Amino acid sequence: MTSFRRCPEGRIATPLSRWPGLLPFLALSVWMLLAILPGRLAAETLPREVRVGVYVTSVFDVEPSDGGFGIAGYAWFIDPEGTFDPEHGMQLLARSAQTRIFVDTELEDGARYAVMEFQAVYDHAFDVRNYPFDRQSLPMVIEAASTVSDIVFVPDTRDSRVASNVRAPGWSVAGFDLASSMATYDTGFGHRAGHPSFSRLTATVSLARNMSPLLFEKFSGFFVAFAITALVIFVPLEELGIRVGMSTGSVFAAVFNRYRLEDAVGFDAVFGLIDQVSFLIFSLIIATLFLSLFSHRLSKRRGPAVATRTDHRLGLTILIVHAALLALAFGVVLF
């Protein structure tokens, strides 16, 4: 039991009054504890940052009709704590992938440095609205196996790029981007509570489709159909069979070109350039066919001279309107 005695002034003497320097020391200790402890707790809860870079050496099988593309190259992982294992700590979110760790070493500062060779095929929803004058952004996604509370990927942009000798058939490399993000799933994968989130690194290769010296060669069937249809108005009204036969030939040329383009890009529900050109060409053919039937009947009622004059005026109007709309459709895409 602590004993107290009275000071000469009559106050009670306590252990703190016996050692006057003890109170400032205790106050300083408490202050330091309050200042250091939150920092330590925060350091313990912060996720580990792993620096990731990508060097692309090949882009292949870029097939809009198949909905996929292939990519190959190297990815490196730098973990300052030296514990990240890329063989089990990450995955390529691809249709199929092959990986091989061929460098795994410790740097002078104690960080772990690992290089992985990869070749993967990714699913991709191609934007073919402007085909064949389109540009595509092809994302390669790497995801951490641990949640963001443990691992966060940080992009190493300094050395990440596409090799200068990469040549994708029919395409030119137009850019490269490396960015990190977070993906949250709506499943706990059988053992996690709630909706877990994982760190992702996305390397995006931008491609521009190479243009043919014949700029519109992929639409040659449509232009042949347009030319045949334009010649219909110069056929005499008495030759209705020839007019109908020429319109039928235009239909075959347009349908063949349409199927050829669909085989190249696959089905797409978006109303793109191919659909716009198809609609205008078929609209021109149908309008010209109806004009031929109307002018033929008009010739019997009001005479060949009036019918021919009306046929030429309406025919030229139809041709000019459709030609202007076609030029507008191509102009919006090209410029």
* Strand portion: 25-35%
Largest sheet: 6 strands, mixed
The CATH class of the largest domain, by name, is Mainly Beta
- Name the CATH superfamily assignment of the largest domain: Neurotransmitter-gated ion-channel ligand-binding domain
User: How does the overall form come out from the CA principal axes?
Assistant: elongated
Q: How many domains, as an integer?
A: 3
| End-to-end gap | 94 Å
Count of DSSP strands: 12
Structure annotation, total helices? 7
What is the average of the pLDDT values?
86
Provide the low-confidence segments as ranges: 1-8, 39-43
Q: Give me the strand/helix succession.
A: EEHHEEHEEEEEEEEHHHH
Task: Give the proportion of residues in helices.
Answer: 25-40%
By helix and strand content, what is the structural category?
alpha+beta
At CATH level 3, the topology of the largest domain is Acetylcholine Binding Protein, Chain: A
CATH 2nd-level architecture of the largest domain: Distorted Sandwich
Roughly how many Å is the radius of gyration?
A: 37 Å
Structure description:
- The chain folds into 3 domains: 12-45; 48-209, Distorted Sandwich (Acetylcholine Binding Protein, Chain: A), CATH 2.70.170.10; 217-334, Neurotransmitter-gated ion-channel transmembrane domain (Methane Monooxygenase Hydroxylase, Chain G, domain 1), CATH 1.20.58.
- Helices cover 39% and strands 31% of the residues.
- It contains 7 helices and 12 strands.
- The chain has helices at 15-18, 22-45, 86-89, 220-232, 240-265, 273-302, 304-334, and strands at residues 5-6, 12-13, 48-63, 68-79, 90-92, 96-106, 112-123, 135-147, 151-155, 161-162, 171-184, 197-209.
- A hairpin with a 5-residue loop joins strand 1 and strand 2 (12-13).
- The chain is elongated, with a radius of gyration of 37 Å.
